[in-house]
Design goal:
The protein is of the alpha/beta class. It folds into two domains: 129 residues, Response regulator (Rossmann fold); 62 residues, Arc Repressor Mutant, subunit A, CATH 1.10.10. Helix content is 50%, strand content 14%. Helix 5 links the parallel strand 5 and strand 6. Helix 7 packs across helix 9, helix 7 crosses helix 10 and helix 8 packs across helix 9. The longest helix has 15 residues. The chain is elongated, with a radius of gyration of 20 Å.
Length: 224
């Protein structure tokens, strides 16, 4: 942590992500805020290592999984370049992955669907050495602190998530669910990922079986 993080006029930022639109959005957002400068963009692990070696210090905003960087490699890179402050971007995160990131000393993790002002707050907190987790990550943090396995019947889904479980059980596609609920395709996908994580399933068939056991849907109504 730096004694006076705001004293430096310009804070160098490295963006590391394989997705063009994510990079463009981040560059646009950061360029609108004085005090930060996107110094480099890395779209591979090799490019990332080269830029870290060259720039020496600053903020690294990275989707490690998108670059094919394993948790072991990520930890090694972090140890190799300790002068960088890390902000992890992710589309989805499991409890195990969250625990591994925390163990490696990373304490700033946000989902890519984060709102603009929250992302700016996350960047600021990262540089100041403060923790920042988006809401979805906070849920994982709470689960991690419980230190116990939650039975299927007590899995806590939101009202919206339960509705989407029922629509999935009815055989509706992501596009159809988005149209029916008047929400975006991206929002439906986020709900699906959160539901699958909470229910600890990997496909729709497993989801429906678990939902029946949990009493979320009636097995008379739904056919697998």
């Amino acid at each position: 942590m730096r004694n006076n993080p705001l004293a430096e006029k310009i804070i160098n930022v490295i963006l590391a992500d394989s997705k063009y639109l994510v990079i463009e959005a981040l560059q646009s957002l950061i360029s609108q805020n004085s005090g930060y400068l996107v110094k480099a963009v890395a779209k591979s692990q090799e490019e990332l290592l080269a830029w870290l070696e060259k720039i020496k210090s600053g903020i690294l905003i990275i989707d490690a999984s998108g670059l094919g960087i394993s948790k072991t490699q990520l930890n090694q890179i972090k140890q190799q370049f300790p002068s960088f402050s890390w902000l992890i971007l992710t589309d989805i995160l499991t409890k195990t992955e969250f625990d591994e990131l925390i163990k490696s000393g990373i304490k700033n993790i946000v989902y890519k669907n984060i709102e603009k002002q929250d992302l700016l707050a996350a960047i600021k907190s990262t540089w100041e050495g403060k923790k920042f987790f988006s809401d979805e990550v906070l849920d994982l943090a709470r689960e991690s602190n419980e230190r116990k396995t939650v039975p299927d019947a007590t899995v806590k889904l939101t009202t919206s998530e339960i509705d989407i479980v029922k629509l999935i059980a009815n055989g509706m596609t992501t596009k159809e669910i988005a149209a029916k609920r008047n929400i975006s395709h991206h929002t439906v996908n986020t709900h699906r990922k959160n539901i699958f994580r909470k229910m600890a399933v990997s496909n729709s068939s497993e989801l429906i079986l678990h939902a029946i056991k949990a009493g979320l849907i009636d097995n008379i109504e739904y056919f697998i």
